[in-house]
């Protein structure tokens, strides 16, 4: 381990490790909803003792490719690695009041993870150019939906966070036919769209509508819209390894 930074913000505990094997970055987040529990039996990857420093316990998990989360009891020095991550909907089977829970994160706070990508929906409405600049400022890019799985995940994410209002009606994604009409490509590239989920009679805006968005009134099917309309933008970046 070359560098080790600890950020304790009260409700969340962050630990970022830069490892010698390929400089892999790992982020651990404290999840208080699973405190006092414990992964058991087949869910357990390792069970170590006499590790009183939380950062050392987390590093034991970081070194083990099968470890996704960890329970640590600072008073007793017990450090248990788990093969799964737990949230509100999935709880570990064991109980032990002395343990605090930390789960491995592949995305920074405020972003959402699916497979190898992290996603962020801008808080403000903006036109497509401003959305592109916002994503780039976050070291990300407008999301390019490449599969049904990713498409369904983003729809579920939107539905979990928003309801349809005049202010929240559509969400830009990273395709445009600005260069060639009806040749939909990723913003700023010639990479063609490989998956699509157009609504009925879409796209239909011809040269007046050169950007793509999830559209609430069409059950979040895709529509083409003017790039000057102000909507929220969905940004994407690569998840931590």
CATH architect. name of the largest domain:
Roll
C-alpha termini separation: 16 Å
Give the CATH superfamily of the largest domain.
Mannose-Binding Protein A, subunit A
Order of helices and strands: EEEEEHEEEEEEHEHEEEEE
What do we call the CATH topology of the largest domain?
A: Mannose-Binding Protein A, Chain A
Shape estimate: elongated
* Percent of residues in beta strands: 25-35%
Overall residue-averaged pLDDT value: 84
Largest sheet: 8 strands, mixed
Q: In terms of per-residue confidence, which ranges show pLDDT below 50 for 5 or more consecutive residues?
A: 1-24
Number of helices: 3
How much helix, percentage-wise, in residues? 10-25%
Radius of gyration based on Cα positions: 21 Å
The CATH class name of the largest domain reads Alpha Beta
> Which structural class best describes the helix and strand composition?
alpha+beta
- Looking at how many chains there are and whether they match, the oligomeric state comes to single chain
How many structural domains are formed by the residues?
A: 2
Please tally the β strands and state the result. Answer: 17
């Amino acid at each position: 381990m070359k560098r080790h930074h600890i950020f304790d913000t009260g409700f969340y505990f962050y630990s970022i490790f830069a490892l010698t094997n390929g400089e892999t970055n790992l982020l651990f987040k404290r999840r208080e909803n699973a405190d006092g529990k414990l992964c058991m039996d087949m869910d357990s990857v390792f069970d170590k003792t006499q590790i009183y420093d939380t950062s050392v316990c987390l590093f034991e998990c970081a070194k083990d490719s099968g470890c996704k989360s960890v329970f640590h009891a600072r008073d007793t020095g017990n450090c248990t690695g788990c093969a799964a991550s737990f949230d509100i909907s999935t709880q570990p089977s064991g109980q032990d009041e002395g343990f605090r829970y930390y789960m491995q994160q592949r995305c920074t706070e405020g972003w959402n993870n699916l497979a190898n990508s992290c996603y962020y929906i801008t808080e403000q409405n903006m036109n497509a150019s401003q959305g592109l600049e916002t994503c780039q400022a976050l070291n990300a890019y407008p999301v390019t939906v490449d599969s049904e799985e990713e498409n369904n995940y983003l729809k579920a994410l939107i539905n979990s966070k928003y309801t349809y209002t005049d202010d929240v009606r559509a969400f830009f994604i990273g395709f445009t036919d600005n260069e060639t009409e009806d040749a939909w490509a990723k913003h700023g590239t010639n990479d063609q769209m490989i998956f699509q989920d157009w609504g009925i009679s879409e796209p239909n805006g011809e040269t007046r509508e050169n950007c793509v968005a999830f559209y609430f009134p069409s059950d979040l099917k895709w529509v083409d819209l003017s790039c000057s309309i102000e909507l929220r933008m969905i940004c994407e970046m690569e998840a931590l390894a």
